[in-house]
Write a structure and sequence with these properties.
The chain is an all-alpha fold. 96% of the residues lie in helices and 0% in strands. The chain is rod-shaped and about 195 Å long. The chain starts with a helix and ends with a helix. The model has no long low-confidence stretch (mean pLDDT 84).
């Protein structure tokens, strides 16, 4: 069963017109207007919130950029301070080494001086002991000389 195209187009046109009338009458209903107004208000609130969030995001991005700049500056300062600290540590180590070398040298000198002083003391004691022995010998020699002189005198008298 074939339906001519003109009848189909007219039928479709009638349906479309009927649908248009139905939608128009729905739009004129107070409920639909309220719904449109509410939706419009909600849309405005959402748009306002969206703008506010966008502004807030821009503000946060600006703060983040500023914070990143500060972090970079502080990182550079930290790197400089670490480098300076390493230089100071190297200098301190060098100075400590020089100080240790000097102290060791002075200690060796002191030990050598103490050893020399001990040797001098030892030799002084030996010298004093030998001086006493020499003094004793001198006394004995003097006594022997006196005895010798006395014996000569006795021999000469005889």
């Amino acid at each position: 069963h074939v339906v001519p195209e003109e009848i189909i187009a007219t039928a479709n046109g009638d349906e479309k017109e009927h649908e248009l009338l139905r939608l128009t009458s729905e739009l004129e209903e107070p409920n639909t207007n309220n719904m449109v107004n509410e939706t419009s208000e909600e849309l405005k609130v959402v748009e306002s919130r969206s703008e506010s969030e966008h502004e807030q995001n821009q503000l946060l991005r600006a703060r983040l950029t500023g914070a990143e700049g500060e972090i970079k500056k502080k990182s550079d300062v930290i790197a400089e301070l670490e480098e300076e600290l390493e230089t100071k540590k190297a200098k301190k180590t060098e100075m400590d080494t020089q100080l240790m070398t000097t102290a060791t040298s002075r200690l060796e000198e002191r030990v050598a001086k103490d050893a020399a002083n001990a040797k001098v003391e030892e030799m002084t004691k030996k010298f004093e002991a030998e001086s006493k022995a020499v003094a004793e010998l001198k006394k004995e020699v003097a006594a022997l000389l006196e005895l010798n002189a006395s014996l000569r005198n006795q021999l000469e008298r005889q």
